[in-house]
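Sample pair:
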Amino acid sequence: MKRRNSLAALLVTASLFGCTTSSNHGVSVPLVATRQNTGQIGNVTLADWGKETGFSFFISGAPSGASLPLRLFTFINKGSCQHPGPVAYAMNDHVTTERQAIRGWAFSRSAPVALPVLLSGEYSIVVRSAPDSGNVDIFCGDIRHKGPGK
């Protein structure tokens, strides 16, 4: 059974890697852990859905003491992680996550904005813990347009 889970995890990882390396499929944004979530890593893949953008998140963990099941709130802010601005889009219709066998959490969201709009402006993605888990920002990633070869 463990071999089947390992194979499934490998296939999921390989398919996600394939999606994040093709300019036609989306944009990969690394998520940097905040002081409240030191030592954790994360990534989000943005997918062009026409007038909307899809977001597929994977994070390695949340702050100790976070309530389970893990509920996370996500936002697109104007500005960068270093110089945050106001919330441009809240993506909180669903705040649940799914525990992964490969030690981490996965969740998906969408925003009513086209991917080219996000890439042409200065925006950042913020992941925040639920109010019962401190209501603190735990990850942030700057959405940046990367030209060919980068």
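The first helix runs from residue 2 to 21.
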